[in-house]
Write a structure and sequence with these properties.
By secondary structure, chain A is α/β, with parallel strands linked by helices. Helices cover 14% and strands 23% of the residues of chain A. Chain A has an eleven-stranded mixed sheet with strand order 2-4-5-6-7-8-9-10-13-12-11, with no helix packed on it. Chain A has a two-stranded parallel sheet with strand order 1-3. Chain B folds into two domains: 155 residues, Alpha-Beta Plaits (2-Layer Sandwich), CATH 3.30.70.520; 139 residues, Alpha-Beta Plaits (2-Layer Sandwich). Classes of the chains: A alpha/beta, B alpha+beta.
Chain lengths: 259, 305
């Protein structure tokens, strides 16, 4: 298909537990010329809690929107707004996801095996807060404005991130385990950013602290043991070398650990 | 089946029962940088917490924890608190954590109980951070990081409280104080191995067992005169002729079976302990069933041993 497909309908179909035949008859939007599910997909199986979308591509937008329980496995890429306002369960994309995925995430877990677009876990334009709960794990790279206005929860990116990561962050925890991040945490108010490489920081925005109290760090490492083995091992193999606080320009009290 | 008279290692076990009553309880986990500072913190927070009569709370170490058993990977202790009401428990916990653990260098405090009604822990004392406190939510747990002069005091937001039992007890009646102390120490050592219980009194032992009421109107409890050797001849006594010392062991526990197990292990250890040949009998304190609904019959406990 070469046109965007709104997949937000998926949750309604799963929640209503309708038969596969009925599901294929569902209109994908309220437009008079709207396609039916069956025009694009073949629906099979009975397990409403474990959905698999095969041969997915970046045109399928909004997969996992409002998802509450169970898992969605996406074989292939997913489009923009994946797992938007997800409230529980797990959305696992075996490829890449588009922009604004995980926006308004309110619980559960979004796992992305490849790359994520811009605005991952960030606030949507016009909204005041980004993700509010839950976890996002990106095994590849992530685009710009990662975790913008993020309110709570955890984002981990194994690869590199684009510009403006964690800008205006309100709270939560972000792990940047790839290369050097450029000016992360600009205008951050609270929250924790953990960087594997020393980021480029503006000297008048962040202050380097000498005090090394690792009590909370140990709790965080212990928590990660039950969440993600790879991250846990990464954290175990090192301890914070540096801690910066800021953004001082807005009297922020966020922290950036360099491990 | 109960017997009219039971002896254990030649020591008479009286056919009576210990009367226990409902309490509210919670558990917290305290950690610190090393054993020395952990013990300072624990001694402080469990100090003056022997009896609800005047202390308003009863507290003690349930068990010591290895680094692998604590949330922050440091040495720790599981501490149980018991009070007569949930409000009293919450107030005592807030004051004790605030005054004894927040102040103790390198300490951190965590919930030791995940079920029951929430009781404020860090939530109650975070304001000490004067706006610089940091809240971190990891999974379904919230932690407060309160800036203090040695770094940060990390404290979990809430712990939980459950219905529990206080006042499980037994009395060791001995020919002399040395023998009574010796077997009491053995009994407390055995009780300390039982999970979910504490012995809140000094060294786990009470010498001032009490009866309900007093000739003085303001006192709700006064000396248990029937077991005071120096009052023999002045008041009706429960003591055998050659008894000269009685020590009581009081047990608080999270459930009935834990208190029963602790009483049984304690009695058995007392009867088999060093100098037990100078122990005359084991009995228990009760108020005719008027104080509390939990009755631990000594013969039933020993039958199960």
């Amino acid at each position: 298909m070469d046109f965007p497909v709104d997949m937000r309908i998926l949750k309604k179909i799963v929640d209503s537990r309708m038969s596969n035949k009925k599901a294929e008859q569902v209109l994908m939007s309220s437009r008079p010329d709207a396609l039916r599910i069956g025009d694009l997909f073949k629906v099979s199986g009975k397990d409403h809690q474990n959905i698999v979308i095969e041969n997915s591509n970046a045109k399928l937008e909004g997969i996992g929107t409002g998802w509450k329980r169970g898992t969605i496995k996406v074989i292939g890429n997913a489009g923009s707004f994946t797992a938007q306002s997800q409230r529980g369960g797990c959305v696992h994309v075996e490829g890449s996801v588009g922009d604004f995925s995980g926006c308004g995430l309110n619980g559960g877990q979004l796992v992305i095996d490849a790359d994520a677009g811009n605005g991952l876990g960030a606030s949507l334009p016009g909204e005041k807060i980004g993700m509010n709960e839950g976890r996002i794990v990106v095994k590849g790279n992530a685009g710009s404005r990662l975790g913008n206005r993020m309110r709570r929860g955890l984002i981990a990116v194994y690869g590199d991130v684009g510009v403006g990561a964690c800008c205006s962050m309100i709270s939560g925890t972000v792990l940047l385990l790839g290369g050097q991040a450029n000016l992360p945490g600009t205008h951050m108010r609270r929250g924790t950013i953990i960087c594997a490489s020393e980021p480029s920081l503006s000297a008048d925005s962040f202050f380097e602290q000498v005090c090394k109290d690792n009590t909370y760090w140990n709790i965080f490492c212990s928590y990660m043991e039950g969440c993600n083995e790879r991250i846990h091992q990464t954290l175990l193999s090192c301890s914070p070398r540096k801690r910066f606080v800021g953004d001082l320009k807005i009297h922020g009290m966020g922290e950036i650990f360099v491990i | 089946m109960s017997h009219p008279n039971i002896t254990l290692n030649g020591i008479l076990i009286r056919k009576t029962f210990a009367e226990a009553f409902p309490m509210k309880a919670t558990r917290i986990v305290v950690t610190a940088r090393n054993t020395v500072w952990l013990k300072h913190a624990v001694n402080s927070v469990t100090g003056f917490a022997t009896s609800v009569i005047a202390c308003k709370v009863e507290a003690g170490v349930e068990r010591w924890l290895k680094p692998s058993q604590t949330p922050d990977g440091r040495e720790g202790a599981a501490i149980l608190f018991f009070a007569m009401s949930g409000d009293q428990l919450e107030a005592q916990l807030r004051d004790r954590v605030g005054q004894c653990l927040l102040t103790s260098p390198t300490s951190a405090v965590f919930s030791g109980m995940d079920e029951g009604k929430p009781v404020a822990l860090g939530r109650a004392i975070r304001y000490f951070g004067d706006g610089y406190q940091i809240s971190k939510k990891l999974g379904n747990k919230r932690y407060w990081r309160i800036p203090v002069m040695d770094g940060e005091f990390v404290c979990e937001d809430v712990t939980h409280r459950i219905d529990a039992i206080g006042g499980g007890n037994f009395l060791i009646v001995a020919k002399d104080i040395d023998s009574a102390l010796s077997v009491a120490e053995s009994a407390v050592a055995a009780i300390n191995k039982v999970a979910s219980v504490i012995t809140p009194f000094p060294g786990g032992v009470v010498r001032s067992g009490s009866k309900v009421g007093s000739k003085y109107r303001r006192l709700i409890a006064s000396t248990n005169d029937a077991y005071c050797p120096t009052l023999r001849g002045l008041v009706p006594t429960n003591l055998p002729d050659d008894a000269n010392a009685v020590l009581e062991i009081v047990i608080d526990g999270l459930n009935e079976s834990a208190v029963g197990d602790a009483m049984r292990d304690g009695i058995v250890a007392a009867c088999l302990g060093e100098r037990s040949e100078r122990i005359l009998e084991i009995t228990a304190s009760n108020f005719g069933g008027k104080l509390g609904p939990y009755h631990f019959h000594l013969h039933s406990l020993i039958d199960c041993a």
